[in-house]
Amino acid sequence: MTLLKAARLKRFARPALIAAALAAAVSSAAHADQTLDKINSRHEIAVGVLIGGSPFGSLDPQTQQPRGINVDLANDIGKRLGVKVQLVSVQPSTRVQFLQQGKVDILIANMEYNPQRGEILEHVPTPYYRVGGTAITPKSSGVTKWEDLRGKPVCISQGSSYIRPVVEKYGAIPRAFPGASQSLLALRGGSCVAAVHDAAPLLYPLQQHDPEWRDYRTLQPELEPAPSVIWVRQGEKDTAAKLDAIVRDWHESGWLIDEEAKNGLTPASPALAEWHRQLPAEQ
Fold first, then answer.
1. Which residues form the Solute-binding protein family 3/N-terminal domain (predicted)?
2. Taking the chain, what is the end-to-end CA distance rounded to the nearest angstrom?
3. Per-residue pLDDT tens listing for the chain (283 residues)
């Protein structure tokens, strides 16, 4: 079963509850959830984005303005909703808090779906990307496979979904930092033997394009591949449904494939090609 189909199955789980909710909605006046109300009333959407120096989010060195896939997705959502976009920079350690406290309306922040997150937040059913983690380590470290991390210190972002598997599966000792930039700086300073972060959005491009990282290797296979989704507050199903239609159109039109190429993200994601073929057939 593909991740997209799994997401769709989850979306239609518990049919009795969903049917009851729909019946209640029909019996009362049509009314968007609180997030949509707020977006429409102020004509602006606040989007939490991760600006971590990757093709998904970075600062333009000339203009110091945010750029990348996360930023492009946020701006296109604003365009389709007919509202202005306020970009709010978030960190892995703060992004859930920012959403729950209402500092942002939605998150497009390289935050993959997992059951723990699904218990506290609502997510857009259709993923916009698929991401797994990898470890980057000096070629001189002797670390060539995940099992080599047992008992060794590993730099990682606070709140990362990779903390649990590197500890429980591979016995590494996590040293958590507010974000990837601090984690990678600590790795270069010798505070840990490896750093574990998203593969395609961050570590692959870093290794491929930055000469300072050519003496480092990344580990395979990718750790815990999971769908990247847009997150909203718990119970905000109207907002999730509105955004789902947008994400589906991104896939059907091939816009996300173009975005990936435009932002220099390599290797190309097989998931994007899969969803581009699959979605029209599921209408």
1. 44-264
2. 18
3. 444 544 444 444 444 434 434 443 433 334 468 899 999 999 999 999 998 778 899 999 999 999 999 999 999 999 999 999 999 999 988 999 999 999 999 999 989 998 999 999 999 999 999 999 999 999 999 999 999 999 999 999 998 989 999 999 999 999 999 989 999 999 999 999 999 999 987 898 888 888 999 999 999 999 999 999 999 999 999 999 999 999 999 999 999 999 999 998 877 888 999 999 998 756 5
Measure the CA–CA gap between 96 and 277, rounded to whole angstroms.
32
> Would you say 116 and 239 are in contact if contact means Cβ atoms under 8 Å apart?
no
φ and ψ at residue 268, rounded to 5 degrees: -60, 145
Residue type, 21: A
pTM of the predicted model as reported, rounded to 2 decimal places: 0.76
Query: 3-11 vs 270-281: helix axis angle to the nearest 10?
Result: 50
* Residue found under tokens 């899969």: 274
DSSP run (H or E) holding 188: helix 180-188
SS3 of residue 152 by DSSP: coil
Axis-axis angle for helices 237-253, 255-262 (nearest 10): 80
Kindly list the structural domains of the chain, giving each domain's residue range(s) and its CATH number in brackets, ordered by start: 3-128+229-281 (3.40.190.10), 132-225 (3.40.190.10)
Question: Could you give the angle at which helices 237-253 and 34-42 cross, rounded to 10 degrees?
Answer: 70
Give Cα separations from 60 to 25, 68, 76, 258 (angstroms).
45, 9, 19, 20
Measuring CA to CA, which residue among 184, 173, 226 is closest to residue 4? 226
